[in-house]
Amino acid sequence: MPVDIATLNGPQAEAVQCTEGPLLVLAGAGSGKTRVLTYRIAHLVEDLDVAPWEILAITFTNKAAAEMRERLQGIIGPRCRGMWVSTFHSMCVRMLRADAERLGFSKSFTIYDADDQKRLYKEIMAELDIDPKRFPVNALMGRISQAKNELIVPGDFEKQAIDPVGKVAARIYTRLQERLRAANAFDFDDLLVYAYLLLKNHPDVLEAYQERFRYIMVDEYQDTNHAQYAITGLLAQKYKNIMVVGDDDQSIYSWRGADIRNILEFEQDYPNCHTVKLEQNYRSVGNVLAAANAVIANNQHRKAKKLFTSAEDGEKIHVYMATDERDEGRWIAGEIEKRRSAGMSYNQIAVFYRTNAQSRMLEDMLLRAGVPYRIVGGTKFFDRAEIRDVMAYLTLVVNPSDDIAAKRVINVPRRGIGKTTIERIEQFAREMGMTFMQGAELVVLDPELRASTRRAVGEFVELIKEAQEYSGELRRVVEMIVDRAGLISALTNENTDEARGRIENIQEFMGVVDEFSQTHEEDDAEFAAPTEGDAVAGDAEPVRVLRGDSLADFIEWVRLRTDLDTMGEDGKAVTLMTVHSSKGLEFDCVFTAGMEETLFPHMNSVNDAAGIEEERRLAYVAITRARKVLYLTCAQQRQIFGQTSANPVSRFIHEIPAELRQTSGLGSAGFSGTGWEKRGSRRGIAGSGTEAGGGRVFGRSSASGSAGRGDRDRAGRSGHTGSSVHGSGGYVNPKAGKKEAAGVTFSVGDAVDHKTFGRGKVVKVDGDTLHIRFAKTGQTKKLLKDYAPIVKI
Ligand code: ATP
Ligand code: MG
After folding, report:
1. Which of 22, 368, 552, 586 gets the most CB atoms within 10 Å of its CB?
2. 439 and 588 belong to one structural domain
3. How far is CA 41 from CA 45, 78, 744, 784, in A?
4. ipTM summary value
5. This prediction's pTM
6. 584 CB near ligand 1 (under 6 Å)
């Protein structure tokens, strides 16, 4: 069935139909760039008989890749399976899995994430006697990461390093690459570097990919870094059928090495390039678009763009001036409930913030109001210690040379292998030129070690070896590790709330394993050889089957899950995320919290013009995510980063013409004393906003806790342990008057209804804490009676 070009406007259709030669689509937010890219793929496959596996589509996040694949599935059906629709990093992993040997690595390499990497840095710094107080590890990591993104190898880096930090970084960089190689591991940046080297230094590999990917498309091209630019350049060199889409106004990753010049100079890189501009915005109502246009117009360094919409004006931009961050969060929760009562789905609502540190308070307030939310970023499920332990075990099964993983878990759970033994193994391995695991295997024979220690090390080595035999059977090997290593039983013995939370997380992990197994079957098709219908005469073996055993695939899948991927479609919930992660997405209703100077724009950027321009682009991204309603909130004073600060309203709010704004809260008096005085009695109104939606009264007390947070964790998000208590204890609200607590008393046996967990029964009352067993899950949860969204029934 031909692709329906009629649903596109003129320039969009032109871009879709321009299939040969280089093509640049440079256009503002919401103008349909991603849609054009998707339609163009469909057009190639459906109307021009291009084989799906000849197409390479690169997106910025895994989430965007999944969405694009879904949209393609909708237009062209299962034929999209052989296509590579992925992020740069995923693409590089696939390339390296196929040819790692060419670079002296084995196919079973590990990918180090930030945490692994930090451990390695610390080890190297200790080894080289570098003082982390003088040279903070984050600064060094940043420096080296930047070099990698610019494809600067250690030798050149050393030559260029003139300042003290640079010189120290140069020493570390050299050692880091040795250590990574010895561990058969890549860090995130290495994936790009080595994929580039593979293509650059192995002409046969490059040619195979050039022949394969006749059509290359890159979304969000304005945020590519030099390494990504170079890889794309190599792949497109031969046929030059490359389409890039982007918006210079949305370049927001320069701190991670993204180079806006990549898009601005595309026309120079490909002189016969065709350029299409899109000017109609289909996403947002008039007022939102006008606000976005007004803000971005303040940037000096940009290509001027026009963007219009034929949509109605919609509501004005809601600006709320809160007294503090709690008031802000509470008000947002109330507005969310109002929108929800008016028929908007939670899924269509998002709350953005500039820094991750803001999320905790927002979460707290949503939790109290019983607003379901999912958080993108922050401390993720996969970052929790117990999950990292299981992952380290699994990694070790696949790649026994991964010393970092081995050292992480050799004594987890505690089995009497102390620091001295570990150092002994390490030293022995170093002397013998072995991996840590090989060293451990031999140390077992060392008569100087205690028999019990030898036994413990022996059992550990044995467990890993045995698990290796089953590495093709994912679930079995995970169960085996969890059982045999005694991870759960050790936690059970601890018998604390925290340990129970950890057990739940490990159990949740089994759910992740199952989720992978289910989606993996589908994924497989993507890697399999093309079906007959897709085959093109003359091309032998055009698709490599890259998937190895399923444990290795699983680990890779977990490692590549970026923040955005924790955003499941299951269950309706409000999305909380940083502005950075919101790129490319859209929601009916968007809140951006913390619109104050030093927060947004961020204090790190306020002193330099380029920094401010990037912050403004970020504001432009935030505003343009909204389809119908946009809220911007700020607080007169805020506790953040461990201190209280009071800052003026963000310049980005002032840059929105006053007639487009509607202000409430402290009012047009701004953050002046009178406005604040008047606010006192309104607090109750903010509280009752939540009441209106949920029909319940949620209390506030001076000793605050965060009931239900642990439960939230189970829902697959993030964070802190179930028992954590949050710091509103010191909060004094001078105007709030008496406690709004429901004052309802509960006793054992009472039936209750919880907004999220449903029906349950009180099984124990412990002061303010209720122990409630919920019918649906059979689990007992501890909830604070004045906070939890519960009613007695
Ligand atoms: P961003 O810069 O934020 O990534 P974008 O330019 O990629 O935005 P899209 O996400 O492709 O924009 O499109 C924005 C919205 O407009 C989507 O909901 C899309 O379906 C819709 N849209 C785009 N073009 C049209 C069209 N011709 N007719 C109807 N809707 C359209
Ligand atoms: Mg887009």
Report:
1. 368
2. no
3. 6, 14, 60, 53
4. 0.99
5. 0.72
6. yes
